[in-house]
Amino acid sequence: EAGVTQFPSHSVIEKGQTVTLRCDPISGHDNLYWYRRVMGKEIKFLLHFVKESKQDESGMPNNRFLAERTGGTYSTLKVQPAELEDSGVYFCASSQAPYGYTFGSGTRLTVV
Amino acid sequence: KNQVEQSPQSLIILEGKNCTLQCNYTVSPFSNLRWYKQDTGRGPVSLTIMTFSENTKSNGRYTATLDADTKQSSLHITASQLSDSASYICVVSEPHAGNNRKLIWGLGTSLAVNP
Question: Mean pLDDT over all residues of chain A?
Answer without folding.
Answer: 93
